[in-house]
Each structure stands twice: as structure tokens, then as C-alpha cells.
Design brief:
heterodimer; A: 136 residues; mainly alpha; 6 helices; 0% strand; globular; B: 134 residues
């Protein structure tokens, strides 16, 4: 457990929670990244603007964090076929399952949504099994 | 005003993900690697996020409507159907293969690398396919 970073993890998590709190209390929406992003194409024009603004903020927020001293995002260690397969699974899975780590894992679980709790348990378990199989 | 708030929420989300190092796929994978050199950090990311988000949920219960919108636009379904289970399983498998979920992948576009762009292109392709045909 020498790579454990409790302080930055709790602080970063609290900032993510603050984002969800702001979006809920001010706009009445769920901070679910897969839902916000996948809706960019299907949404009406009026509904598209806020989704794009959120995504622009998301990218600039990463810049801001690095400017403030957080480590730069790392490059994933995977071959091209695995990157494509993983991307497709994440894209299809989050649309079919109506959410990802943010929408189900953070927003849904904090609302005690039974669907989100079930989804989070399943995607965590499948992630753990996949890592176990690929690293075995 | 509403759009500025949404932008700030996005900014906070990207800031939090990067501070928590969720933008490092290797770190995410070492959280999922419970039988190996386990890194419990991500559990604390979830804990911190859930604690603050839950305060929002509690405050929202005493509000008739959001501060800048006409109504709360929240999912209400409580049905555990096949789509939810299969979708979550597919997502979890993809997550475990590379260590990216949608938020960190998109936030990392600030420092785009070729593998990241390949992953994101495939993810958008997957979303498009699922919206269109599934």
C-alpha cells in the first residue's frame, strides 16, 4: 500500500462532491459525465450548450489542478486493440446502463438510488475481476 | 448565470478528478487490483465525494426547486432491469481493461496523448452505437 495517497484522495473526492452539490442545488441536475457527454449529440440545440460548457469546464479544471501542483494525467499503458475494446465497452456500457462512476457511483449512491447502488456494485466487481484476470 | 454555474461545476469536477489522481489509469487499476499491491485511494475519493454530495441531497429535499432552474431534473426509476445490469457489467469490464471511466478520460484531454485519443474516440463510438441501436 506504499502508493496510498489518502489526503489528495479525500480532498479531490470532496471537490468532486462539491461539483455534484452545485449542479444539484443550482441547476437541479445529476453530475453524471457519461449522461452529459452522450447527450451532446442527441440533445436539442438549447440543451446542447450547457453540456458542452460542462465538458469545457472539466478539461480546464484538469489544467487548473496541474497548475496548482497536482500531477499531470498519466498516459495509459495499453495496446491499441485493448484501448479500442475498452473504449467501446465503456461507451456502450455507460449508455445501456444509464451511468458511470460519477452518475451512479457518486450522485446516485448519495441519493440512495437502488439502481445506482446495484450498478456500482456490478461495475466495481467487473472491474476487479477484469484486473484480476489480466494481471494473473 | 445558469450556464456559468454549470461551467464552474465542470471546472470543479475536473479539478477534483485530477487532484485525486483519477486521471492516472495506473492508479485506478491498482485500486481494482485487490489481490495485488492494493492502493485504497479511490475508496477515499468515493467517500469524500459521497459525503459532500449527500449534503447537497439533504439540502435539496427542503427546496421546492433549484436556485437557478424551474425543477429538479432527476432520475426516478427504481427498476433493476437487464439493461442496467448488462450495461454496468460492460462498463466495469472496459474500466478494468485500461483504468479509464468517462470523466477522467475527458478531463485528461487537457494533456492529450495518442492512447487517450484512441480510447476517447472508441468511447464516443460506443456511445453513438448504443444510442442509435441499443
Amino acid at each position: 500500500m506504499e502508493n496510498f495517497t489518502p489526503t489528495s484522495a479525500l480532498l479531490g473526492g470532496a471537490i468532486i462532491g462539491l461539483s455534484a452539490l452545485v449542479l444539484l442545488l443550482f441547476v437541479g441536475r445529476i453530475a453524471g459525465i457519461s449522461g452529459i457527454v452522450s447527450g451532446i449529440w442527441s440533445a436539442k440545440n438549447s440543451d446542447r450548450v450547457w453540456r458542452v460548457l460542462f465538458v469545457v469546464g472539466l478539461v480546464l479544471g484538469c489544467f487548473l489542478a496541474v497548475y496548482l501542483g497536482a500531477p499531470q494525467p498519466a498516459v495509459p499503458m495499453a495496446s491499441t486493440p485493448i484501448l479500442i475494446l475498452a473504449g467501446l465497452l465503456v461507451g456502450v456500457g455507460t449508455v445501456v446502463g444509464s451511468g458511470c462512476t460519477s452518475g451512479h457511483g457518486v450522485c446516485g449512491m448519495s441519493r440512495l438510488s437502488i439502481r445506482s447502488i446495484v450498478a456500482t456494485v456490478i461495475f466495481m466487481a467487473c472491474g476487479i475481476i477484469t484486473v484480476w484476470l489480466t494481471r494473473a | 448565470m445558469k450556464n456559468i454555474t454549470i461551467f464552474i461545476a465542470g471546472l470543479l469536477f475536473g479539478l477534483g478528478l485530477t487532484v485525486a489522481q483519477m486521471t492516472s489509469p495506473e492508479k485506478v487499476l491498482s485500486f481494482l487490483d485487490i489481490s495485488g499491491n492494493w492502493d485504497p485511494s479511490l475508496a477515499l475519493v468515493m467517500l469524500g465525494a459521497l459525503a459532500v454530495s449527500a449534503i447537497g441531497v439533504m439540502l435539496s429535499k427542503s427546496m421546492k426547486k433549484p436556485l437557478l432552474a424551474e425543477l429538479f431534473n432527476l432520475p426516478t426509476s427504481q427498476i433493476i432491469d437487464r439493461k442496467l445490469i448488462i450495461g454496468a457489467a460492460l462498463f466495469g469490464t472496459g474500466w478494468g481493461l485500461v483504468g479509464y471511466c468517462p470523466g477522467p478520460a475527458i478531463a485528461s484531454l487537457a494533456y492529450a496523448s495518442q492512447p487517450l485519443l484512441i480510447f476517447i474516440a472508441a468511447m464516443f463510438g460506443g456511445m453513438f452505437i448504443a444510442k442509435r441501436w441499443l
